[in-house]
Each structure stands twice: as C-alpha cells, then as structure tokens.
Write a structure and sequence with these properties.
Helices cover 40% and strands 10% of the residues. It has nine helices and five strands, in the order αααβααβαβαβαβα. Strand 2, helix 6 and strand 3 form a beta-alpha-beta unit. The radius of gyration is 17 Å and the shape is globular.
C-alpha cells in the first residue's frame, strides 16, 4: 500500500469510460458472431479496464516482451473483453473484433497461444490459476524479475478443485507477485454459483490458503485501483462483487443469459444505453 497513489477524478472517469467501451465492443463482437458470452464480459469490464489501463506494466506493441506483467484470463469464455482490451491498447484493429469466431480470424471463441498476447489457452475452466502460479513462481525464484502476474477467474470455475490446489501452492511459496481476481458475478452457466454473493466466505477460504484477501465492489474503478496495489509477503486475492450482464437493462443479474449473444435490435439498444451513460459525465 505504500506505493498507492489515489488516481485523480479525470483518470477514474477515463477508466469508467474505457470499461464501457470494453462492454460495447464485447456486445458488438458476440452479436456479429452470433455466439459468445457478452454477459460474462460485462461483469469483468471494470476489472479489465483498471488492470490494462492503470495497473499493469507492459508494452502494448510487444505482448511477448519478457519484462511485461502477465495476464491470464482463466474464465476464457470472456475472451471478447480481452480482445477488446488489446484493441483499446492499440495492438488489434478495432474492426478485427467483428471477426470473432470466424474461421480466418485469430480471435477464437476462447484465448489461444497463437495470439501473441495469450500465454495459455483457457477454454477448459479451472486451469488458468495453476498456469499463473507457474509464471509467478518462475518470476520470483528463477527469473528474479519484477513482473507481476494477474489471473482473472469466474466464480463458477472456483468450484474446481484445481483452483484450490493452485491456491495452496501460491500460499505455500508466498508468491507475492501473484494477484488472483475473483469475478463474483453470482451466476454460473445454468444456475447461480454455489456461494452466490457470499463474499466473506470466499475471503475466509482464500485467507485459509495463505492469501491476502481483499473484498471490493468490482464495478468501482477506484476500489479496484487500490486493491491491485496491495502487495504483502503473500499472494493477493481480489474478491470482486460484480453483476453478470452489468449495464444491460433486462439482462443484468438475470439467469438464462450465459453464453447467449444479444439479438441485433437488443444489442443496439444496450449500446445506446451504455453510451448515454458515459456521455452523462
């Protein structure tokens, strides 16, 4: 926390606006593709905005640079928000986002390592944190480097035992260069996640595995900025309360919208709504 400097209001508003652009581009891409997971992207928009445009240190035109901070999106079905972030950073042309899931595009439905900005494929849930632990262990004990590793998990995949094996590994080796972000949007694929919004249970579990666990409003860019700066002599878990489909009226926090793109007319309405919300500031 010693290094934390509260961002000014202009920076915070810029991060909010960026989050809304990530939402819009995730909706546009999945609607154009006729498949994908826009609601899973919308819950993580502020998280990704703050990570990519405030917290992480990386060279946007050189995603494989060994000095870059690492980002693993373990909830790989939210790939469109990752692609939107790399377009926002200037690495991908924004128009390429509309080629999501096309046979001749590198923007597959889930992240794959043939994309220069993807270190590990995460179509299979529960795998990302284990890979992130390996990166963080290598950075701390072999490379002795300053890069940090950030891993975004969905609350549905946190039911996987492999996640807790990774949590135990990171706690034991005090991987203080590792941050796991739990996108607790309450809803899984077909039903609510087991713990829904019981954030204190997630927090206690993480602490039991030797992590510094911080509960935040996952749609507050200010709280996220502060949480990502918390570096102690242990790994950090940022437990973010979010809402699936955040920003889309009639869809936000509603069941039966997992993995469903918005129909064209509905997408257009949602985009107008999100844009008007940004313009109010």
């Amino acid at each position: 926390m010693a290094n934390y400097h509260k961002p000014d209001q202009q920076t915070l508003q810029s991060l909010r606006d960026t989050a809304n652009r990530l939402r819009i581009n995730s909706i546009k891409a999945t609607t154009a593709a006729g498949s994908g997971h826009p609601t899973s992207c919308c819950s993580a928009a502020e998280i990704v905005s703050v990570l990519f445009f405030n917290t992480m240190k990386y060279k946007a035109q050189d995603p494989r640079n060994p000095s870059n901070d690492r980002f693993v999106i373990s909830k790989g079905h939210a790939a469109p928000v990752l692609y939107a972030a790399w377009a926002e950073a200037g690495f991908l042309p924004e128009e390429e986002l509309l080629n999501l899931r096309k046979i001749d595009s590198i923007l597959e439905g889930h992240p794959v390592p043939r994309q220069e900005f993807t270190d590990v494929a995460t179509g299979s849930l529960g795998q990302g944190l284990g890979a992130a632990c390996g990166m963080a262990y290598t950075g701390k004990y072999f490379d002795k480097a300053s890069y940090r590793v950030f891993c975004l998990l969905g609350d549905g995949e946190v039911s996987e035992g492999s996640v807790w094996e990774a949590m135990a590994f990171a706690g034991y080796y005090k991987l203080d260069n590792l941050v796991a972000i739990f996108d607790v949007n309450r809803l899984g694929q077909s039903d609510p996640a087991p713990l829904q919004h019981k954030l204190e249970v997630y927090q206690k579990r993480c602490e039991a595995f030797g992590w510094n666990a911080v509960v935040v409003d996952g749609h507050s860019v200010e709280e996220l900025c502060k949480a990502f700066c918390q570096v102690k002599n242990q790994p950090t878990a940022v437990i973010a309360k979010t809402f699936k489909g955040k920003g889309i009226t009639g869809v936000e926090d509603k069941e039966n919208w997992h993995g469903k793109p918005l129909p064209k007319d509905m997408a257009e309405e949602a985009i107008k709504e999100i844009e008007s919300r940004s313009e109010e500031h």
